[in-house]
């Protein structure tokens, strides 16, 4: 007759896993969620300024809003 397995004796609750340097599933730090872009703003500007902003956005591979936000933060960094 076969003996059944005693799972309780196979688990050592006092031991901790060895640090292998490889992150385990679920242990990876996630990037903080970006603030939702729900507000909109319409502004008037010279066509040359708009073209410059669009060129910067294309070169940085970022949305136009990111370029504008970065410029505003650089202009007034204490806020």
Would you kindly provide a written description of the structure presented here, covering whatever features stand out?
By secondary structure, the chain is an all-alpha fold. The chain has a domain of 37 residues. Helices cover 33% and strands 0% of the residues. The chain is built from two helices and no strands. The radius of gyration is 27 Å and the shape is rod-shaped. The mean pLDDT is 81.
Detail the topology: elements first, then pairings.
Layout: H1 47-60, H2 64-75
Helix pairs in contact: 1-2
Name the quaternary structure: single chain
Strand count, sense and barrel status of the largest sheet are:
none
The averaged pLDDT comes out at 81
Series of H and E elements: HH
Task: State the distance separating the first and last CA atoms.
Answer: 76 Å
Helix residue percentage = 25-40%
Radius of gyration: 27 Å
**Beta-strand share of residues:** under 5%
Indicate the overall shape.
Answer: rod-shaped
- Contiguous helical run count: 2
Give the strand tally.
0
């Amino acid at each position: 007759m076969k003996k059944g397995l005693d799972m309780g004796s196979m688990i050592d609750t006092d031991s901790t896993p060895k640090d292998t340097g490889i992150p385990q599933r679920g242990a990876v730090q996630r990037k903080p969620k970006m603030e939702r872009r729900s507000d909109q703003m319409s502004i008037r500007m010279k066509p040359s300024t708009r073209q410059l902003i669009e060129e910067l956005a294309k070169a940085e591979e970022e949305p136009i809003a990111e370029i504008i936000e970065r410029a505003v933060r650089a202009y007034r960094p204490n806020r």
